[in-house]
């Protein structure tokens, strides 16, 4: 704000276009030394704008209203005096508030200012003609807009210098802020001493919010400040900037899509065929010394003599050279227990495609509203998603959802014709079902027949197919399921598929799942043209292994899982299969197919059935031994591979027949035996 207010002069009036023709209002100050201010009438009649935010007015005035509901005295407005006709010109520029009601244009009342003793009055001049003009944009409220019937600023008592310069506690308001309010408190009269030139305005006090406040004086805000534009909100600017950023991002996205392939870059492509993984077994240290029979014998003599092992048979082979490093009854048939799964897994990898899947379908039944579940040999179907011990298992809910989408179902049947023969293997004991070792082998079941889906060794049901079919019927809204046959060529209403065979083999080896192993043995039988039964599965496994050059002399087994105590195989058969899988090169075609067998073996102290083992004196083998376990009453076995401290891969199989405590004596003794191979330094 400038230091001194700038009053209009004669030269300013001369530069006005309307100065010669428009009537003016002359303001006479009490002092003859002060300049005369002439204001164009058209500018005085400027219509107030309601768009600008409140700002301080250049005129001090007493209140011109007595409260809400009282008419404003002084300046007539359209509809309140004169002709009563509102002006049609409502356009206007900046304003500092509304003088009267916001209807039409106000009529100016001619007046003159006369000094009278110690007061100055503004009185109407009846002899002057009042002209009604269209109101151009105006900046401020002028003197002639003040009410002529109420006390004006010039009517107030003169203050002394001491009173004039005392700070006022009241904060200023504009004239338009006083319209329609209750009567304001009158400011005590004050005196304005004569002066030769305008005095420096006193800065306004800090803004407060009392109720009754006077308005500011004309001299406190110079005319150049009144012409400033109102402060504008930044919200439109932020909105524009946001739109520009969004537009830029959209443009960049479109450019990237076009630049890097257009529609081809975002279209959905079918998944690629599974990669043909062929992991290699290499020496950990290049040029590692070759193990010797003497070195291995020296390492195993002590652990092998542990009496807790009872009758111990086994063998150790160097797969890089095929040399037998340790042998103890290796050709004598013994009970392998679950280590027999190595043979079933090898036959599956040699005869089935790694990407093969087991399919379960629901087809249209012979009668309307009837559906038939066709068991496809997948025992891993999950009855409770997220609670399965089988990674990648299909879900029953998925199958139900597909069938529901085809229409209502009133009857459910299940077809188990895929398998033949007895559901329980020879010499299997019924207590194994309650104990969680196995369930009747059927082509349609949920979670391997487990009642608790997350408990690997939990109790299983004796009728897994009926339980699974009833669960399907309940979820689809039909009565309990019954056995039935699927019509030939019936329409398929739904289908789910298991994880690939390679993953199923890995899972059955990790958790030593008997049901899954028997299902895979039947799939081998179906692929080789044998009957899908226990006998057909065993024959198929033997046929595949014999065809691939493995010697099964002395091997006699009746199932694929090793659950029967009547199974007998020589330890050498297990090491022969593992040696082929562990060869360091892929010169042998069988090696490439059997590689996944090595990664399917549980890791000592890390995964599967070996996760809780290899503690105490067997700890050196933790993480280095990978092996398949086998446990039956009086029988314990361990067959797998280990990397010794010289960086050589060794393959082993150990079978123990002992009546000692398997948990605290026999299995720990086998773990120490394998760990001894890890630290032997067998060169």
Automatic annotation (TrEMBL):
<feature type="compositionally biased region" description="Acidic residues">
    <location>
        <begin position="1"/>
        <end position="15"/>
    </location>
</feature>
<keyword id="KW-0378">Hydrolase</keyword>
<keyword id="KW-0121">Carboxypeptidase</keyword>
<keyword id="KW-0645">Protease</keyword>
<comment type="similarity">
    <text>Belongs to the peptidase S13 family.</text>
</comment>
<dbReference type="Pfam" id="PF02113">
    <property type="entry name" value="Peptidase_S13"/>
</dbReference>
<feature type="compositionally biased region" description="Basic and acidic residues">
    <location>
        <begin position="187"/>
        <end position="198"/>
    </location>
</feature>
<dbReference type="GO" id="GO:0004185">
    <property type="term" value="F:serine-type carboxypeptidase activity"/>
</dbReference>
<dbReference type="GO" id="GO:0000270">
    <property type="term" value="P:peptidoglycan metabolic process"/>
</dbReference>
<feature type="region of interest" description="Disordered">
    <location>
        <begin position="1"/>
        <end position="231"/>
    </location>
</feature>
<dbReference type="GO" id="GO:0006508">
    <property type="term" value="P:proteolysis"/>
</dbReference>
<protein>
    <submittedName>
        <fullName>D-alanyl-D-alanine carboxypeptidase / D-alanyl-D-alanine-endopeptidase (Penicillin-binding protein 4)</fullName>
    </submittedName>
</protein>
<feature type="compositionally biased region" description="Basic and acidic residues">
    <location>
        <begin position="113"/>
        <end position="130"/>
    </location>
</feature>
<dbReference type="InterPro" id="IPR000667">
    <property type="entry name" value="Peptidase_S13"/>
</dbReference>
<dbReference type="InterPro" id="IPR012338">
    <property type="entry name" value="Beta-lactam/transpept-like"/>
</dbReference>
<feature type="compositionally biased region" description="Gly residues">
    <location>
        <begin position="79"/>
        <end position="95"/>
    </location>
</feature>
<feature type="compositionally biased region" description="Basic and acidic residues">
    <location>
        <begin position="158"/>
        <end position="176"/>
    </location>
</feature>
<feature type="compositionally biased region" description="Polar residues">
    <location>
        <begin position="22"/>
        <end position="34"/>
    </location>
</feature>
């Amino acid at each position: 704000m400038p230091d001194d207010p700038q009053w209009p002069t004669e030269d300013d009036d001369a530069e006005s276009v309307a100065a010669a023709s428009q009537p003016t209002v002359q303001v006479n100050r009490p002092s003859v030394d002060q300049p005369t201010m002439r204001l164009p009438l058209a500018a005085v009649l400027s219509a107030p704008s309601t768009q600008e935010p409140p700002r301080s007015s250049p005129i001090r005035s007493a209140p011109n209203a007595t409260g809400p509901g009282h008419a404003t005295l002084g300046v007539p407005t359209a509809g309140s005096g004169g002709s009563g006709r509102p002006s049609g010109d409502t356009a206007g520029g900046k304003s500092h508030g509304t003088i009267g009601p916001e209807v039409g244009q106000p009529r100016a009342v001619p007046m003159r200012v006369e000094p009278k003793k110690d007061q100055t009055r503004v009185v109407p001049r009846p002899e002057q003609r009042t002209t009604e003009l269209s109101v151009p944009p105006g900046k401020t409220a002028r003197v002639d807009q003040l009410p002529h019937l109420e006390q004006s600023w010039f009517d107030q008592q003169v203050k002394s210098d001491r009173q004039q310069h005392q700070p006022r506690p009241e904060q200023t308001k504009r004239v338009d802020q006083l319209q329609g309010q209750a009567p304001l408190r009158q400011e005590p009269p004050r005196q304005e001493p004569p002066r030769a030139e305008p005095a420096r305005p006193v800065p306004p006090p800090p803004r407060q919010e009392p109720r009754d406040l006077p308005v500011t004086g004309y001299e406190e805000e110079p005319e150049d400040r009144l012409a400033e534009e109102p402060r504008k909100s930044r919200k439109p600017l932020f909105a524009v900037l946001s739109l520009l950023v969004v537009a830029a991002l959209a443009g960049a996205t479109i450019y990237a899509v076009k630049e890097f392939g257009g529609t081809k870059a975002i279209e959905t492509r079918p998944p690629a065929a599974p990669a043909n993984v062929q992991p290699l077994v290499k020496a950990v240290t290049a040029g590692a010394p070759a193990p010797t029979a003497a070195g291995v014998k020296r390492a195993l003599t002590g652990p092998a003599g542990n009496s807790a092992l009872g009758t111990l048979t086994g063998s150790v082979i160097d797969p890089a050279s095929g040399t037998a490093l340790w042998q103890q009854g290796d050709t004598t048939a013994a009970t392998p227990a679950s280590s027999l799964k190595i043979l079933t897994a090898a036959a599956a990898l040699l005869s089935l495609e790694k990407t093969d899947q087991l399919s379960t379908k629901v087809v249209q039944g012979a009668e309307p509203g009837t559906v038939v579940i066709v068991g496809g040999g997948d025992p891993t179907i999950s009855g409770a998603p997220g609670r399965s011990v089988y990674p990648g298992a299909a879900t029953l809910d998925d199958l139900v959802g597909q069938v529901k989408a085809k229409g209502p179902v009133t009857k459910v049947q299940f077809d188990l014709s895929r398998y033949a023969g007895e559901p329980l293997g020879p010499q299997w004991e019924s207590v194994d079902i309650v104990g969680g070792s196995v369930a009747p082998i059927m082509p349609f079941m949920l979670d391997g027949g487990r009642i608790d889906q997350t408990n690997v060794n939990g109790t299983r049901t004796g009728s897994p197919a009926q339980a699974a079919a009833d669960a399907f019927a309940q979820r689809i809204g039909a009565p309990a399921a019954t056995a039935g046959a699927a019509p030939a060529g019936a329409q398929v209403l739904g289908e789910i598929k298991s994880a690939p065979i390679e993953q199923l083999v890995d899972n059955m080896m990790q958790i030593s799942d008997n049901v899954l192993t028997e299902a895979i043995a039947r799939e081998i039988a179906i692929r080789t043209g044998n009957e899908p039964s226990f006998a057909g599965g065993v024959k198929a496994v033997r046929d595949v292994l014999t065809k691939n050059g493995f010697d099964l002399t002395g091997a006699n087994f009746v199932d694929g899982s090793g659950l029967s105590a009547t199974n007998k195989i020589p330890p050498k058969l297990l090491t022969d299969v593992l040696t082929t899988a562990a060869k360091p090169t892929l010169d042998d075609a069988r090696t490439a197919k059997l590689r996944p067998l090595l990664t399917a073996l549980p890791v000592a102290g890390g995964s599967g059935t070996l996760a809780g083992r290899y503690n105490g004196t067997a700890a050196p083998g933790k993480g280095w031994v990978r092996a398949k376990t086998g446990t039956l009453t009086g029988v314990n076995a361990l067959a797998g591979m280990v990397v010794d401290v010289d960086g050589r891969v060794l393959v082993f199989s150990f079978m123990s027949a002992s009546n000692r405590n398997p948990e605290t004596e026999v299995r720990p003794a086998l773990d120490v035996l394998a760990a001894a191979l890890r630290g032997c330094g067998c060169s």
